[in-house]
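Q: Here's a chain of 486 amino acids. Please give me its 3D structure as tokens.
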Amino acid sequence: MLKALADPKLRWFYLLSGLFILLNSLLLVKEFYWGIAIPVAIVVALMYLFWLDKLLLLIVLVTPLAVNIADSELGIGISLPSEPLMVGVLVLFILKTLFNGQYDRKILTHPLTIAVFFNLAWLLITSITSEMPLVSFKFLAARLWFVVPFYFLGILLFKDVKNISRFKWLYVATLIVVIIYTTVHHSSYGFAEKQGHWVMKPFYNDHTAYGAILAFFVPVFVGFIFNYERSRTYRLYAAIVSLILLGALYLSFSRAAWVSLAASVGVAVLVVYKIRFRWIFAGLVILIASFYMFKAEILYVLEKNKQDSSANFIEHVQSIYNISSDASNLERINRWQSAIRMFEERPVLGWGPGTYQFIYAPFQRSKERTIISTNAGDLGNAHSEYIGPLSEQGFPGLLSILWIGIAAIVTGIRVYRKARNREIRLYSLVSVLALVTYFIHGFLNNFLDTDKASVPFWGFMAMIVAMDIYHKNTDRVDTSMTKGQA
């Protein structure tokens, strides 16, 4: 012991530990219990200064477990602990950029980055012209603290290709904790369909947000099963995770998530089997033309469907196209119609980012309202990643979202086809398929104002750009981690 105390570093360690114990004891006597968080705060502060890459991965890890605190004394809602950590990263990035001014020009001039810049610039313009500027600037600030850490810094993070795999495994590690909690909670209600809509709280707002993320990661881990560059143990873990995700997705009763996953399977077939674009385009033209030719017959069939949502899988699938009696489907149509009327009144600048839920009520029609309609603006937004921006940011807002989606998918497919390394090809393919699930899901819901969806969404965008710029032309990817590790 005396020899140990002769070491100056150990003396400082014991001194600081003793001071912390003394300070925390005094705080506990005063019934202040947050003192125990002081070492965590110190470690996080050091990560901001010296290990920003590890901090980003830490945020990925805690995001599925983050809890949204709304209606606080400050009158705002924030997801803890993930969003405060992202705000710190945003501030640090701005300060470093102002004083250092160095950032890879290849990233700034990439087609996907240009699309992201356009989206952010238009959000700024429409926030200035917004009907509710305070709401819109809060929306813009939240978008920045999602995009800056996980797109602009994410691309730099993924220059180390090992972080691509780490990101996915870290997110799903705590997502599985949420799955276990949700499944156990759901089992206490006999896995009933109605209770399945909210048993994932407080981690996810409802089953649609939960299902969207489950569907997002299914293609990733199913793809990892076929990563023959890794060991059998690695692929076995990927198979186990895939089964857990699929089971949880089934129990989520999220019809939109099921549809989005089915669409990603279709895209996978088109990409892997190299179906030519002209055949895909011809198929879409035939599909659209058939709809218009037989529109009356199709609407008649849809209106005849009276199947409401159900715990029975087949009946629940049938309820997807029930537009005559299913309250959830009819309410979406009501929200979309309201959003389109808002767009028609302000087609260029819209009403302002984030304002839909506060403004749409007068744009409803009595004949379109449902038993779950409300004028209070407290039951969500336009339920679409495309129609929502159309009403809030005008046609350029919709264009900016479509531009980002097309640029990401085209870049990802290009990397898949041209990458020399098999693992990079696999990473690019599963990243595209994951994003496809979200873009399809985006027709029916929108979650990019939440950390749960934004962290993987912008992170996967960053992965695609990083692979395109840094890894596409390398024959050998450095996977110096032990085989079987993520």
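Q: Can you summarize the key feature?
A: The beta strands are 67-69, 78-80.
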